[in-house]
Design goal:
By secondary structure, this protein is of the alpha+beta class. It has 5 helices and 10 strands; from the N terminus they run E-H-H-E-E-E-H-E-H-E-E-E-H-E-E. The strands form 2 sheets. An 8-stranded mixed β-sheet has the order 1-2-3-4-5-10-6-9. A two-stranded antiparallel sheet has the order 7-8. A hairpin with a 2-residue loop joins strand 2 and strand 3.
Length: 218
């Protein structure tokens, strides 16, 4: 069945709230944080809708069922895609890429200078999707000194500096699949910085959680 990308309607509220709850649960598994979102993980969606810089929302609909949504936040002439959510059964089908294309088109129509997306470094499937959609400029990195003693997986190098990116804990095959996607760690090799240097697999010793990928609009 075909998937339609369209603007958010008030009738989509419940479906998008459910997708938000699914996203929070995924993040809880991905980041090893059980109970993320507290007793009402959908409350974050209600808070999101009140943001003054929320400038548009779009949903992906298949057979009258909302299977994903994305939002556009704007500050001055700078945009950010937040969130980008696709229900588990529809991932790796191109829905996320189509939502990103819709938000990018809107950013161009509004004459924004660039459009940013902030996946966690361990969210390799999401990063691969973003890169395919044109988010291939690396503009910001958050570095963390993990004081808990938790082990992290080696595998990234940026400007000849080694970094860890994925916490090591017992995981199921389903969790690994969600984190890596179909392309595995090779997806990380495709993220480029302003000067064309590449993030490539390597030995590492420091952790790099979120990164900012930017698509410059023309």
């Amino acid at each position: 069945m075909s998937v339609e990308i369209r603007g958010f309607r008030p009738a989509d509220h419940a479906a998008c709230r459910d997708l938000w709850i699914e996203m929070v649960a995924d993040h809880g598994r991905l980041y090893d944080e059980p109970g993320l979102g507290g007793d009402d993980p959908g409350a974050g969606f209600e808070e999101y809708l009140t943001r003054l810089n929320l400038s548009g929302m779009w949903v992906a609909e298949q057979a009258d069922v909302v299977v994903g949504f994305a939002g556009l936040l704007i500050e001055d002439r700078h945009g950010e895609v937040r969130p980008l959510v696709v229900t588990e059964s529809m991932r790796d089908t191109g829905v996320g890429s189509r939502l990103l294309a819709q938000v990018t088109e809107e950013a161009r129509n509004r004459r924004l200078r660039h459009l940013a997306l902030r996946p966690a470094a361990r969210n390799l499937a999401g990063m691969h999707c973003a890169h395919e959609a044109g988010f291939d400029v690396l503009t910001e990195v958050t570095l963390v000194n993990d004081l808990t003693g938790r082990r992290w997986r080696e595998g990234l190098s940026l400007h000849d500096l080694p970094f860890d990116y994925l916490p090591v804990w017992p995981v199921s095959r389903r969790m690994v699949s969600a984190m890596l996607g179909r392309s595995g760690v090779v997806a990380m090799a495709a993220i480029g910085s302003h000067d064309g240097e590449r993030v490539v697999p390597s030995g590492s010793s420091r952790s790099v959680p979120p990164v900012t990928l930017t698509r410059y609009t023309k």
